[in-house]
């Protein structure tokens, strides 16, 4: 069995928590929870759900692309929203980034996200294999 391929994007959480931004095994690609993290590790767009969701989705898609999946191969997304997040802004960003693909999606309000100012965290799954 071939070892999974992994990509990181250099955020401090990856090393300290022991995970990769994304991993690929065969045709399956899983992208870890992804936020709109600025260069200093804080929320790049505090208070703006739409901007955070769009940036996090683009970052998650880029991680999948680094492992060989195009946006059209995204199967599922999960949007985790912190209290106070604007679900409609998050949904609008999802439509802007992946509306043409229309992957399966789950959007949830959670008790909170790790890190000050984060309103949205995105997970993404893609498949590069042929349909069976």
TrEMBL record:
Q: What species does this protein belong to?
A: Modestobacter italicus (strain DSM 44449 / CECT 9708 / BC 501)
* UniProt xrefs under InterPro entries: RutC-like_sf, YjgF/YER057c/UK114
Instruction: Kindly give the Pfam families that the UniProt entry links to this protein.
Output: Ribonuc_L-PSP (PF01042)
Q: Which domain of life is it from?
A: Bacteria
Q: What is this protein called?
A: Endoribonuclease L-PSP
Q: Which residues form a coiled coil?
A: none
């Amino acid at each position: 069995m071939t070892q999974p391929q992994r990509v990181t994007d250099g955020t401090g959480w990856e090393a300290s928590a022991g995970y990769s931004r994304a991993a690929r095994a065969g045709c399956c690609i899983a992208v870890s929870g992804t936020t709109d993290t600025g260069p200093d590790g804080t929320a790049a767009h505090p208070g703006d759900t739409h901007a955070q969701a769009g940036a996090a989705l683009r970052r998650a898609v880029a991680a999948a692309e680094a492992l060989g999946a195009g946006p059209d191969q995204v199967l599922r997304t999960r949007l985790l929203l912190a209290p106070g997040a604007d679900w409609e802004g998050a949904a609008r960003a999802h439509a802007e980034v992946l509306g043409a693909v229309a992957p399966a999606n789950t959007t949830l309000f959670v008790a909170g996200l790790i890190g000050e100012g984060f309103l949205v965290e995105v997970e993404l799954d893609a498949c590069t294999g042929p349909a069976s």
